[in-house]
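Provenance and format

Records in this collection were gathered into a single text stream. Each protein contributes a sequence line and a token line. The two records reproduced below are adjacent in the stream.
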Amino acid sequence: MSDGTQSCRHSTLQLETSAYAAECGFKRPPPNKRAAATTKSGRVLKTSVEEKNTAATFPGPLVLPDDELHWDPKAPAQSFRSWLHEKHRNKITSTRKTLYVAAVPNVDPGVDFMQEWTIPNLNAGKNPTKRSKLDPTSAGDVEPLDPNDLIEYLTAFYHGLPVQPFPTPLRFVPWPDDKPKHRTPNPSSPPPKHIALATPSNLTRIRLRPSPHPPFTHQLNLDDILDAAIAMLPPDAYALVLLIEHDMYESPSDDFCCGRAYGGSRVAVVSSVRYRLELDRMQGIEGGHVWPASHCGRFVDGVLAEEEGFEFERDLEVQQVGVEEESPMRAAVDAAGKVEGEESGRGVWFSRVCRTVAHELGHCFGLDHCVYYACGMQGTAGMREDVRQPPYLCLVCLAKVGYAVSTELLGGGEVEKNGYVRERYEALWKVCARWDDVGMFAGFGAWLDRRLEQMTLET
């Protein structure tokens, strides 16, 4: 995964929001409100963990130019208390607790032209008539993702809930109302305006459009796919996520959309195609500074230095985790750096899809986008920000998930909730250990290891 950044040692880490946060108007909730946001009462008498140590485990959101919080700096903060009293929140019950993962639909021969739509044209603008091979700096062609790997990850991430494959295969098929003239043996003929997503009991029309920009030629309508997911939701499902390998769009003004959840309807759809490693250069992703190295102080300073008209002074008070200090974030950066350059394209692809799927399912739990910390529930405004976000849940968001499972479903109290958090971390660590040749998983595993040590010392 070489892009010329491997020489960076990430010797200082950005623990607080960058200097750009003030420029765009984002004000992070102060420490006392962050601590209060983790409690059921919404109040806290004292901060239980000294703030510097907390920051070395759960840093603040970076807030760089063109990030989500740049464009929406007044986004509301959802505390544990406000989440708990949300009127329309879906609670987990003993009869509705299963998370379902629907694998990528098969493509029927009648719509086999769709197969070409998953192949990126990386030479767009150079020779548009020639289909591109993979970027020579990429990891090369990779086999499809295995939904069983994702099920294993989600079983740990949402520990305590059963996670199962959707019981019947899905298929993309022709939409019956489209006239036959839309499909001829001539490969240059335009595709129809619709296809259909078929289950054994339902057929949902899916709109298509030519992609407005490279690297893909056509896109599927996200809203229609979400409708299909709602129609096939099993009665015992708490939520369902449907995987797609095609590019998607949500509104006519969209360039593309990687995923979306209808939390109230308990469904999510995630497209994996934009996360492939060979697209990094085209999408402006700097591989050497994806999470956890996105918190590298040198990297953050470099991004801000390139922002036209913005001047700042580096604040060492918020970049104090040195090479020697043993903290979860330091351990994560060092562990990820050891495998940098050795990662498989499929492993990186899988790690990115995992983070997004877990995020979208979080919305089904009623979680809003997080503004308290750098967190897996942060919103993202594009692919460059997406790969900079962490896979963990922050203290506030984990309080919500922990309560939903250990208290609302299992009937436990505070002691059981703390035990749940530890068991969840241990389950995630085991999954990360299996993928320790991938930067995100190596970093997440090291972070989890140190976080478990912290929890032992705190008890």
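Adjacent record:
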Amino acid sequence: MRTAVVIGTGLIGTSVALALVGRGVTVHLADHDPEQARTAAALGAGTDAAPDAPVDLAVIAVPPAHVATTLSAAVAADTARGYLDVASVKSGPRRELEELGVDLSRYIGTHPMAGRERSGPLAATADLFEGRPWVLTPTRDTDTEVLNLALEVVALCRAVPVVMDADAHDRAVALVSHMPHLLSSMVAARLEHAEDTAVRLCGQGIRDVTRIAASDPRMWIDILSANPGPVADLLGAVATDLQETVESLRALQSSDEAKRLGGAAGVEDVLRRGNAGQVRVPGKHGTAPAAYETVAVLIDDQPGQLARIFADAGLAGVNIEDVRIEHATGQQAGLVQLMVEPKAAPVLTASLRERGWSIRQ
């Protein structure tokens, strides 16, 4: 692939363009808002000038509701040899393309499983997709050349290709992306009118749960409008769990011991099912999650502290498998939680103490 057009210069489209330009592909940029395309071009994502001849590939990076019309117009203009979209929903746009009579042999639906809470070209990065799954949904009609072009894009963006059926993809993203986003927003909404004294108690747990609630609501309306059925089904199941949990918690307030025991059993059931589901979330490098030990170290909020603690861990011969930072409320300090192999935890703890670090249990 030597040339490409990216139609839609938001976060995903501009990130794709940056990655392709970085690998030597000539990229042309287009957007319904010319100023946004110019911004992406100024960032080094390509040129906002139209190509003189059909390019190798057109990447349609617009909201799901606009994929079919945008792609249909690009095909009618003979923009490229092949076409792919990067929308987060796959079955709806494909059905709309069929209704419009578009030649689907030159098209493949794809979805890079990457994003950020921020949107727009200024949030784009060339490494956004590195190591991330990138779903491809070919059909029996998909031309081999188009599939190969899509695989080349995935490789150039250093993502990991995953082939799925379009309907199966939509059910999967409803489970692992769309439904969790709504739940995060619902939890965050409880904070809107909460007392300031309560909000000041926010710790890492509430930050983890509400992080994705910071995303652009307009973007998510587009996404959810394209996949409402599977998301509604999942939320219905969650609503059942919520109602049963509410009833169990009410039972814990009862003066009847049998009811209290039943309530405790109900709460324990949902917590244990949560444990069983959480361990299925892939761990490091997409492998089965490992059981790590956490070494918590108190650090000051000063330049160089993180670099020094990582260097000291290296001197101890310990590999840091993962890391989290929990900031102390109202203090210029925080806890760095270093996740390591269980056998390495005592070694790291002793070594860091020798080097003057304050270890917290």
